[in-house]
Design a protein that fits this description.
The chain has 384 residues and is an alpha+beta fold. Strands 10-11-12-9-3-13 form a 6-stranded mixed β-sheet. A 6-stranded antiparallel beta barrel has the order 14-17-16-15-18-19. Strands 5-6-7-4-8 form a 5-stranded antiparallel β-sheet, covered by helices on one side. It has 3 domains: 138 residues, 2-Layer Sandwich (Gyrase A, domain 2), CATH 3.30.1360.120; 81 residues, Aminomethyltransferase beta-barrel domains (Alpha-Beta Plaits), CATH 3.30.70; 87 residues, Beta Barrel (Elongation Factor Tu (Ef-tu), domain 3). It has 8 helices and 19 strands. The protein is globular, with a radius of gyration of 21 Å.
């Protein structure tokens, strides 16, 4: 198991899509990109710890357009949305957002997503990295339901941090001061059409501006940049440190199709007792009844500070050098002053306090299992 010692370059070309904020990313000093949902996603603008400090103390914003939306509309849209995932959505009203898990017939996770209900039969699904739209279109073909599924012109710009409520207040002149957690509203800013939602993937108070005209991406970015100066704003990329602290999971890294919702602690998103049928209902009922054999946990790891997240899964062994799991993401937490990580381990080693060994490229590291998250998401807007 080897990991790169030098910065690796990613080729920029026409095959991978550029977000509406791409030119703004270059203007404000993006240091790297990854590919997410077939689009360039920034990986950094400055030192990760400086971005982290701005995120937990002030306000940050950045390009999250790689969270490509999937629109589901038509007479049977609500029925279809309930069929493709196991959460009970009976109380999902217009303007509500819900965190959901998409599962296959065996209960395996296709992806996780944020669901926005914009109209009676119009929904957006904002999934993690993958080909969810192809999965849903394939299901729709043989479902017998009257639905249309496509990718709309929608590109999120995320605003996060304890001062993000004040920034939103300034941008919209207080119009959205009462916007509730996981609620969404249609709006505009300087004639730029968008949906604003109290959603985000940061671990801090967050808003997402779902831009609805990609030609206006850089204009929106500049408006936010100028307004954020008053609050010591900073352009950032998704922050690994804070997402690990908050136990915010990343599909493809922390879990995948080989896992079910119970393994990753999302049993609350599965209602096998609801009357309607949904994909994977029988399998998930059996899993809930019989229990799981592995579990996602938090780890605290001894040793020198981990300042670069692993490129590969790090094996986890028990005291007899038998593999009992894998570590997916790890980083040094400045607030906790220790290395923290997310891992999936054998159920027999998932109790808090369990001692295990992480096999890193730099040697074996002692670790113990701890409760997730280290810091919960902040929902306070801090508005006067």
């Amino acid at each position: 198991m080897s990991e790169s010692q030098l910065p690796l370059l990613i080729g920029i070309g026409t095959r991978i899509r550029k977000s509406p904020y791409y030119d703004s990313n270059l203007k404000y000093g993006v240091t790297g990109f990854t590919v997410y949902n077939k689009m360039y996603l920034p990986t950094g603008f400055s030192d990760p710890q400086k971005e982290y400090e701005s995120l937990i103390n002030d306000v940050t914003f950045g390009d999250f357009a790689a969270e490509r939306q999937i629109e589901i509309n038509g007479p049977d849209a609500y029925k279809f949305v309930r069929y493709i995932q196991p959460r009970n959505l009976e109380k999902c009203e217009i303007g509500f957002c819900k965190y959901i898990i998409l599962t296959d017939m065996d209960g395996g996770i296709i992806n996780d997503a944020c669901l926005l209900r914009l109209e009676e039969n119009k929904f957006w699904i904002s999934p993690g990295d993958g080909d969810v739209i192809l999965w849903l279109q394939g299901i729709a073909i043989n479902s017998g339901m009257d639905v249309s599924i496509h990718e709309p012109d929608v590109s999120p710009l995320q605003i996060s941090g304890p001062k993000s409520g004040k920034l939103i207040q300034k941008l919209f002149n207080g119009v959205h001061d009462d916007l509730g957690y996981y609620k969404a509203e249609q709006t505009s800013l300087d004639d730029i059409p968008m949906v604003i939602a109290r959603t985000g993937w940061s671990g801090e108070l967050s808003y997402e501006l779902y831009l609805q005209d990609r030609k206006l991406g850089n204009k929106l970015f500049e408006l936010v940049y100028e307004a954020a100066k008053e609050f010591n704003g900073r352009v950032i990329a998704p922050n690994t440190i804070r997402t690990i602290e908050g136990g915010l999971l990343s599909y493809g890294s922390d879990f995948g199709r080989e896992h079910n919702p119970f393994v990753i602690g999302f049993g609350r998103l599965v209602d096998v007792d609801q009357e309607i049928d949904f994909i994977g209902k029988k399998a998930l009922s059996e899993i809930k009844k019989n229990g799981i054999k592995e579990k996602l946990v938090g780890l605290e790891i001894e040793g020198d500070p981990i300042i670069k997240s692993p490129e590969n899964f790090w094996p986890i062994n028990n005291s007899e050098s038998i593999k009992v799991g894998r570590l997916s993401r790890a980083f040094f937490s400045p607030r906790l002053k220790r290395n923290i990580a997310l891992a999936i381990v054998d159920i027999n080693y998932s109790d808090e306090g369990s001692e295990i060994t992480v096999i890193s490229p730099n040697g074996d590291l002692n670790a113990k299992v701890v409760k997730l998250p280290w810091f919960k998401a902040d929902k306070e807007t801090y508005l006067d």
